[in-house]
Design brief:
Shape: globular
Largest sheet: 8 strands, parallel
Strand order of the largest sheet: 2-1-3-8-7-4-5-6
Helix content: 40-55%
Low-confidence stretches: none
Number of domains: 1
CATH superfamily: Histone deacetylase domain
Mean pLDDT: 97
Number of strands: 8
Distance between the termini: 12 Å
CATH architecture: 3-Layer(aba) Sandwich
Strand content: 5-15%
Structural class: alpha/beta
Number of helices: 11
Length: about 290
């Protein structure tokens, strides 16, 4: 069974009309539970000291103490509350737990995380702390990030821009948020309305460069907001194209035996079921490919 960590028991109350689909986390866990493919576990919470491995300690303490400026809170995009703190630290703990598990078993994941917009000293775009960056810093290993969220992993790119031990690969919409891009090790900018065939061609062309870096661990930010149904995506991937994307990643990485950590990333389809189904398909495909490579 594939071990995954969930955090939907910690929720953030959002005002009516808020565009973030918080309920997708619970819906995803409930979709995966009956399959019998997964060992679903709640993680422990991360500590402030762990968050500070990749973030400004002053920023970490301001967040934990509730002393962030109103401007900083607006940039994150969630109303500040104790619920938000608990959810953030549980999500960070989930990726840390999945990373430890992947080092032992070869593959694990977090049904949250992928908070790739958080930079060293600030949050942004529904991201407080960068869970992938914290996990990489906690490991101290040569690492690579495959970020296939429709939005550039700008926070991850900025944190590791001058770190020769980390390779960041982001394939994203050229005209989408963030509008001021950062410099990843490898950026593939996609025009609006990119469809399955071109997307998969480019991914097949560039994905081997991750292995050329010879990482000791790989993180897959598996956002599904490139779907054509996504309200914030601006790309035109079908569910079949999204599944082919995931299969290509797993078929490329898992046979190498390099530990792989999957984080959830974004998804804003309307109705939300399209997002949930795509997220579920990612993890179900991971479980299938894991059995094939064992």
């Amino acid at each position: 069974m594939l071990t995954l960590y969930y955090t939907d028991h910690f929720d953030i109350p959002l005002p009516p009309g808020h565009k973030f689909p918080m309920r997708k986390y619970r819906m995803l866990r409930e979709a995966l539970e009956p399959t019998g493919l997964f060992d679903l576990r709640p993680p422990g919470m991360a500590t402030g000291e762990e968050a500070a491995l990749a973030h400004d300690p002053a920023y970490v303490q301001d967040f934990l103490n509730g002393t962030l400026s109103p401007q900083a809170i607006r940039r994150i995009g969630f109303p500040y509350s104790d619920f938000m703190v608990r959810r953030t630290m549980a999500s960070l703990g989930g990726t840390l737990a999945a990373t430890r598990c992947a080092l032992e078993t070869g593959l694990s994941g977090c049904l949250a995380g992928g908070t790739h917009h958080a930079a060293y000293a600030e949050g942004s775009g529904f991201c407080v702390f960068n869970d992938i960056a914290v996990a990489i810093r906690a490991l101290g290993k040569r690492a690579a990030v495959i970020d296939l969220d429709v939005h550039q992993g700008d926070g991850t790119a900025s944190i590791f821009e001058n770190d020769p031990a980390v390779f960041t690969f982001s394939m994203h919409g050229a005209n989408n948020f963030p509008f001021r891009k950062q410099r990843s090790s490898l950026d593939i900018d996609l025009p609006d309305h990119t469809e399955d065939n071109e997307y998969l061609r480019l991914l097949h062309l560039h994905l081997p460069k991750v292995l050329d870096f010879a990482p000791e661990v790989i993180f897959f930010q598996a956002g599904v907001d490139a779907l054509t149904t996504d309200k914030l995506g601006r790309l035109n991937l079908t569910p079949a194209g999204m599944l082919a994307r995931d299969r290509l990643v797993f078929e490329t990485i898992l046979p190498t035996r390099i530990p792989l950590v999957i984080t959830l990333g974004g998804g804003y389809s309307d109705p939300v079921e399209h997002t949930v189904n795509a997220h579920a398909a990612t993890f179900q495909e991971a479980a299938r490919q894991l059995e094939i490579t064992r």
